[in-house]
Amino acid sequence: MPNARPPRDLALVRQLVDRLRAGEDARLPMIATIRSSMAIEGYENDLKLSVALDKLIEEVLDDVPTTR
């Protein structure tokens, strides 16, 4: 099944995974982006913000390979 995500989204996820693998806190840039959007009312309500954060977490976790 091909991935239906746009290349821009995939590039962002790859960047976040690379940061995680390097031991960095990959969430800080995304948190800053979301806070900026909230400041200019880019997120209209708490539900929309919650859904966006849930999707971000899911995307990052889905792309991280498990090691056993």
Please state the average pLDDT score. Answer: 78
| Percent helix range | 55-70%
Extended strand count: 0
Q: Roughly how many Å apart are the termini? A: 25 Å
Structural class: mainly alpha
**Strand/helix succession:** HHH
* Count of DSSP-assigned helices: 3
**How much strand content do the residues show?**
under 5%
Basic shape: globular
Largest sheet: none
**Spans of 5+ residues with little confidence (pLDDT < 50)?**
none
Radius of gyration: 13 Å
Task: Please describe what this structure looks like.
There is one protein chain. Helices cover 68% and strands 0% of the residues. The protein contains three helices and no strands. The protein has helices at 7-21, 27-39, 46-63. It starts with 6 loop residues before the first helix and ends in a 5-residue tail after the last helix.
Q: What's the SSE blueprint?
A:
Layout: H1 7-21, H2 27-39, H3 46-63
In short:
With 68 residues, this protein is mainly α. The protein is built from 3 helices and no strands. It has helices spanning 7-21, 27-39, 46-63.
Keywords:
mainly alpha; 3 helices; 68% helix; 0% strand
